[in-house]
């Protein structure tokens, strides 16, 4: 895979169909199987992170160009505008205006990594976060913090790490409450680029619900 770092916020990489197949993916399934295309994407992003130290955090804008022998992918991290009201693309227009986007794979990636303009308008739904912890003791310590039991939680293990899925029902929490609780969660864990779909499929479910309450019962 060929990787080009454009700036602090944007990276472009090219992967051939042969490389895709050598990674265990069928050329056809990346167009029509959403979960497999997502798995391939994050596998490529892990490689980008290792080679270019490109840390994925927050919303991403993804553009994919299907070439004769492979895919060219442009990934840009969004930034809040100066007034803090909306996300902006921190990349010059000339860098992206000539990149046609293949609609099939864009639709698949869109579903998980960004909302369309239509979705943004009047969008309602629960806020979901996935955090990773290197040490189980950190999760135990977190469980002893107050006012977190109202969060819908699940705990998983995957590849030697622990993953906490946290869901904030929109009709139950105010925005300030979510900000405060999320800041507490991030004192002990960190956000991850791994998706909950991958964790559910390949990880092990440790605690199905009420993670903090469950841990307090077993770890005084």
Could you characterize what this model shows?
The chain has 220 residues and is of the alpha+beta class. It has two domains: 2-120, no CATH class; 127-218, Alpha-Beta Plaits, CATH 3.30.70. The protein contains ten helices and eleven strands. It has helices at residues 17-22, 29-32, 34-52, 93-96, 103-113, 117-120, 136-143, 175-188, 196-202, 211-218, and strands spanning 2-5, 10-16, 60-66, 70-77, 79-80, 87-88, 127-133, 152-158, 161-168, 190-191, 204-207. The strands form three sheets. It has a five-stranded antiparallel sheet. Strand 1 (2-5) and strand 2 (10-16) form a beta hairpin. The model is unreliable at 80-124 (pLDDT under 50).
Largest sheet: 5 strands, antiparallel
Shape: elongated
- Classify the beta-strand content into a percent band: 25-35%
Cα radius of gyration in angstroms:
19 Å
Total number of distinct structural domains: 2
Overall strand count: 11
Structural class, from helix and strand content? alpha+beta
Spell out the helices and strands N to C.
EEHHHEEEEHHHEHEEHEHEH
Helix content: 25-40%
Termini, distance in Å? 49 Å
Question: How many helical stretches?
Answer: 10
* Strand order in the largest sheet: 10-7-9-8-11
Oligomer: single chain
Query: What does the average pLDDT come to?
Result: 76
Low-confidence stretches: 80-124
Short recap of the structure:
One of its GO terms (biological process) is establishment of competence for transformation. By secondary structure, the chain is α+β, with helices and mostly antiparallel strands.
């Amino acid at each position: 895979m060929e990787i080009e770092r454009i700036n602090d916020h944007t990276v472009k990489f090219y992967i051939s169909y042969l490389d895709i197949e050598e990674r265990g993916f069928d050329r056809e399934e990346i167009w029509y199987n959403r979960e497999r295309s997502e798995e391939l994407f994050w596998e490529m992003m892990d490689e980008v992170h290792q080679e270019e130290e490109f840390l994925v955090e927050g919303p991403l804008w993804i553009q994919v160009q299907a070439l004769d022998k492979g895919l060219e992918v442009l990934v840009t991290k969004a930034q809040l505008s100066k007034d803090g009201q909306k996300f902006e693309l921190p990349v010059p227009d000339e860098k992206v205006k000539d990149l046609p986007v293949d609609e099939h794979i864009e639709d698949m990636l869109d579903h998980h990594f960004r909302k369309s303009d239509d979705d943004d308008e009047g969008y309602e739904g629960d806020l979901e976060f996935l955090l990773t912890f290197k040490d189980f003791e950190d999760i135990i310590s977190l469980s002893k913090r107050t006012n977190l039991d109202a969060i819908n939680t699940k705990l998983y293990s995957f590849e030697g790490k622990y993953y906490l899925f946290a869901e904030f029902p929109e009709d139950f929490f105010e925005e300030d409450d979510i900000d405060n609780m999320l800041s507490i969660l991030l004192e002990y864990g960190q956000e991850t680029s791994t998706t909950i779909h991958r964790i559910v499929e390949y990880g092990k479910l440790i605690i199905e619900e009420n993670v903090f309450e469950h841990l307090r019962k077993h770890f005084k």
